[in-house]
Amino acid sequence: MSRKEKIQRAATRTAAQARETASRERKRSGRSTQASGSNPHRHCSVCWAPIPLEAEPPICDKEDCESTHKKREGSRKRLTIMLYLFPAIAILLALLSGF
Ligand SMILES: [Zn+2]
Fold this sequence. Notes:
Distance between the termini: 72 Å
Bound molecules: zinc ion
Shape: flat
Strand order of the largest sheet: 1-2
Oligomer: single chain
């Protein structure tokens, strides 16, 4: 068989495979959304226990979940501050050295 034929055959085979995989993926994701879409709720960000949708902060009423959440919030805030602070210092130093 010619080189062109070979390439053509390979191309059709991969296309068929891709189509098959895509249809399988669709079927699987459809099933999972149906299963999880029973009733809307959130999960505790610490222990993943189901909590009411309007719970704020998104944690259950366990004491260790609350303290873990507070600790996480604190470190998250520090990280955000540093994320802004470091570029600001870098820009400042660049400006200072430029003048
Ligand atoms: Zn929890």
